[in-house]
UniProtKB/TrEMBL annotation:
It comes from the Eukaryota. Belongs to the class I-like SAM-binding methyltransferase superfamily. rRNA adenine N(6)-methyltransferase family. This is rRNA adenine N(6)-methyltransferase. The lineage of its organism: Eukaryota, Metazoa, Ecdysozoa, Arthropoda, Hexapoda. SUPFAM superfamilies: S-adenosyl-L-methionine-dependent methyltransferases.
Length: 382
């Protein structure tokens, strides 16, 4: 008790303990020489042991506090480092843009990929291109003969771009000609639809054979193109892409890899035209059936199919198309396989063979007139 009373007077910072359970509290050192030594080996004094335990607990807490502090410091240092590196990296990109006198034009959706690891990855996704003919790479980066075509890719006829001796027969392996592009999203989607049409007709670049493409799209569009049945992404674009091409969604590029950064992520997609399409019918017919079929995605197919026909005959023709295709009437568009869409297309073709004028019917054009009809009918019922 005496020892405790004295020790209470001692300033807490001069009390140091080195104790360990295995030492059975054999050693206790005091930093203050004025304090008398306490002989704890004599007899187990409960109060002293409690005091030492308390001191040990305090020490432990201090150590934990220090560890927490150190961890927080590390996190802060790491975040600051990453921030500095980010700013440094961005300034390098900005310098490169300035060096090449490039200015990102918003109206052309110019978002540049400055990381050559990503451009390498895109080129790798194109497959074996060594010694090949490639449409689009940067002039300065290319050791090969390079020709810049200034123009709108949507209206360029690519027929004459490649040497005729590179052409391959359609049923052969694809020629060593590649279309690689990182185009604005508002250009890439209409362009690929146009190119599917060219593929179906074997026109433009596809006069050279089954020319492959490696193109970027908004990530969600890439996902739609490869979407299998029963997925929420399945849509008209899935039908069009998968009907004419073997298609692979290779990888995604995060928006932050571009300068300036777009609001969305980007998907890289590789296309190889099929020797024979799954639905071997004219592009416009397949496109029209797919468009109408998916115009009411959550409804039964019959609703979308019926929009292929004028109002007076639509229910009969739609039922006939489903029956001739051996498809149930309660099927929804995202449940239909490509060969089943094909059966619907052939059924539609047979109807057109009987009544060719039906081919001209366009639901969208007639929509306004029909809506007016419905409204006036409802008006009359009031
Ligand atoms: C997303 S940026 C990509 C730039 C560069 N290829 C890259 O990957 O860093 C899109 C490029 O397509 C060009 N572009 C925009 N509309 C175009 C069109 N209709 N025809 C051809 N190029 C177009 C823009 O000028 C821009 O250079």
């Amino acid at each position: 008790m005496q020892g405790i009373a004295r020790r209470k007077r001692a300033p807490p910072h001069v009390f140091t303990t080195f104790c360990n359970k295995s030492l059975n509290l054999q050693f206790c050192a005091m930093a203050d020489d004025r304090m008398p030594k306490v002989d704890i080996s004599k007899e187990a004094n409960k109060n002293i042991i409690d005091f030492i335990k308390l001191a040990e607990k305090n020490n432990l807490e201090r150590v934990r506090k220090l560890q927490r502090l150190r961890r927080n410091n590390l996190i802060t240092a790491f975040s600051l480092g990453a921030g500095v590196l980010g700013i440094y990296g961005y300034s390098i990109f900005a310098d490169i843009l300035r060096l090449y006198n490039l200015r990102a034009l918003k109206q052309l959706s110019q978002n540049f990929i400055m990381d050559t690891r990503i451009t390498d990855k895109i080129v790798k996704a194109a497959g074996k291109i060594k010694g090949g003919h490639v449409c689009e790479m940067l002039a300065e980066a290319s050791p090969c003969a390079f020709k810049i075509i200034v123009g709108d890719v949507l209206s360029v006829n690519m027929e004459s771009l490649f040497p005729p001796e590179e052409a391959k027969v359609w049923t052969d392996a694809p020629p060593n000609i590649h279309l690689i592009g990182n185009l604005p999203f508002n250009v890439a989607t209409p362009l690929i639809i146009r190119w599917f049409k060219n593929i179906s007709e074997r026109s433009s670049a596809w006069k050279m054979g089954r020319v492959q493409m490696t193109l970027t799209f908004q990530k969600e569009v890439a996902e739609r193109m490869v979407a299998p049945i029963l997925t929420k992404e399945r849509c008209r674009l899935s039908i069009m892409a998968q009907n004419w091409c073997h298609i692979e969604h290779k990888f995604n590029i995060p928006g932050k890899a571009f300068v300036p950064k777009p609001d969305v992520d980007v998907g890289v997609v590789h296309f190889v035209p099929l020797v024979t399409p799954i639905i071997d019918l004219p592009f416009d017919l397949v496109e029209k059936v797919a468009r109408c079929l998916f115009s009411f995605r959550q409804k039964f197919c019959i609703k979308g199919i019926s929009t292929l026909f004028p109002k007076s005959t639509r229910d009969d023709y739609a039922r006939r198309m489903l029956d001739e295709s051996a498809l149930p009437h309660d099927l929804r568009p995202f449940q239909i396989t490509l060969p089943e869409v094909g059966r619907l297309c052939f059924a539609y073709q047979r109807i057109l063979d009987e009544s060719p004028s039906l081919a001209k019917y366009n639901f969208r054009q007639h929509l306004d007139a029909e809506l007016e009809d419905i409204l006036s009918h409802e008006e009359a019922l009031k």
